[in-house]
Amino acid sequence: MTFQRLSLCFSILVSVIVFGCGTTEPTTPSPQPWNPTTGAYTAEYTDNTVYLDSGDVAKLLISTDSATRELRLSNTDPRIRALTPGTNVLVWRTAMGEVTSVRTEGSTTFVRTKATPLTNVLKNAAVSYDHSVEWNAQSMAPTLVDKRGEHHVMTPVGRDSFDLELEWGDFTYKILWVMKGDNARVLITAEKKILQGLRARYTLDGTLSRFRTKSTMVIVDRTTTEYSVENTELKGDFAMIVNCLGSGNDAVNFEWPITLVKVPISVGPLVIVMNVRVQVVINAVVPPDGASLIEVRFTYASDNGVRYANGQLFGLGGAGSHTEENIKAQTGASTPMGVNFGLGFPRLEFKLYDHDVLVPWIQTAMLVGGDFTTGVKPCQTMKTSFIGSAGVDMQMLGITLKRTIPLWNIEKVHRKSGICN
Fold first, then answer.
1. Which of 13, 35, 73, 330 is least surrounded by CB atoms within 10 angstroms?
2. Do 196 and 252 fall into the same domain?
3. Domain range enclosing 71
4. On the CB side of 355, how many CA atoms lie within 13 Å of its CA?
5. Same structural domain for residues 35 and 53?
């Protein structure tokens, strides 16, 4: 394996995390006072929408089945008896969708629904919120749900501490999550299951501060004219550590099938759920006599987000203030080798009623990589990248637009020793 090929691995790793390309100059977010959560909601509904407000819910809603998107309603109200397939329903802080089937048993009507764009329900609307995300263990006890629908409750190990172990593929993933209000301590480990004496361990350890998540949506005559989501005052202080010994080849692009924490945000009858997730990317070639120990401490204060207005899509925020320090880089073998490790965290997903995707992901990512080549021109390098990026899919807003937005990508070479071309 040549030095050029090893360097390409780091570039590929960056592209996997970013899902795009492009760079921007760092900008420093302006500090803001820590304010309580606020929200505003005004709306006019379409003619074929039945809206049940909070009082209606208390009188008419019997139960819901989120898996089948079924509502069980008392048909003592003529609006319920008039529901037919094709009608839209909006139920206060419970559900929204297009009716697909209606079945009545006595005084109960069973209503099945499917996803429908907000513009089918809201004719004209102005919706906004500015939500304070604080790490409160009592109100945010983590419940994890994977893509197979299995629920994993993190094991309490203290008043505000939880942990989890999950086996997936060749790796065992472990997480410790400690919520302290202003800060959450996070320890994430990916460890390869290999022979005794050999090891591959990839670790992130540090703190994520409280932050704010903001959104604005404007619908005029059933057309979304403006939509934005921005996460501000994101502050992280993380150590990333790679410790590999004779661990072989690995190519991992693993978006954790679990959600670490769900943050519900209520505004008017709507509930937007922000899911905190993780993406792990590993690209490693470590021969039997190869070893790599890489450490770096990332600190940052950044903003990230996306905005759609007048048919145009923009990235929001910037890398802000950031440092990469406490560098350790020891990588070597009798043959060429390379180890690259990237973590997208926090990877934030926004869903309406935790069902329908509004924003697939907005994330901050940190990457480290170490290469070593032998021969007449031996060379050792160590690099880092600090990345912000977002995925956009606006189907739920009635717009056919799906795209990746690179927000920033700052790459640094911290070590380059030997004869390196």
1. 35
2. yes
3. 47-116
4. 21
5. no
Give the phi and the psi of residue 262 in degrees, each rounded to 5: -105, 130
Element holding 289 (H helix, E strand): none
DSSP output for 12-32: HHHHHHHSS-------PPPP-
Ramachandran quadrant class, 160 (left: phi over 0; alpha: psi -120 to 50; beta: rest): alpha
Task: Kindly state whether residue 284 falls inside one of the protein's structural domains.
Answer: yes
d(CA 379, CA 336): 9
Whether 287 is covered by a domain: the verdict is yes
In angstroms, rounded to a whole number, what is the distance separating the alpha carbons of residues 284 and 294?
13
On whether residue 122 sits in a domain, the answer given is no
Which of 72, 96, 116 is at the close of a domain?
116
Residue 22 has pLDDT above 50, yes or no: no
CA-angle at 20, arms to 204 and 351, nearest 5°: 70
Task: State percent of the chain over pLDDT 90.
Answer: 66
Whether residue 201 sits in one domain with residue 56? no
Report the C-alpha gap between 310 and 319 in whole angstroms: 26
Position 375 scores a pLDDT of 74
b/e burial code for range 369-395 (CB count within 10 A of at least 16 → b): bbbbbbeeeebbbbbbbbbbbbbbbbe
Instruction: Identify which has the larger pLDDT, 101 or 164.
Output: 101
Within this chain, do residues 134 and 202 fall inside the same structural domain, yes or no? yes
Global pTM reads 0.89
| pLDDT score of 151 | 59
pLDDT in tens, 133-189: 999 877 665 655 555 555 566 666 667 788 888 888 889 999 888 888 899 999 999
* Structure confidence by residue, pLDDT tens digits, 363-417: 999 999 998 888 778 888 999 999 999 999 999 999 999 999 999 999 999 988 8
In a domain, 82, yes or no: yes
Same domain, 207 and 71: no
pLDDT of residue 146: 58
For the chain, the domain total comes to: 2
> What single-letter DSSP state applies at residue 66?
T
Across 341-353, average pLDDT? 96
- Give strand ranges (E) for 120-222: 122-133, 143-145, 151-153, 155-158, 161-168, 171-179, 183-192, 199-209, 211-220
| 292 and 382 part of one domain | yes
Residue with tokens 């559900």: 95
What is the four-CA torsion angle of 355, 356, 359, 365, rounded to 10 degrees?
A: 40
Confidence class for position 240, pLDDT limits 50, 70, 90: very high
C-alpha 350 chain-centroid distance: 8
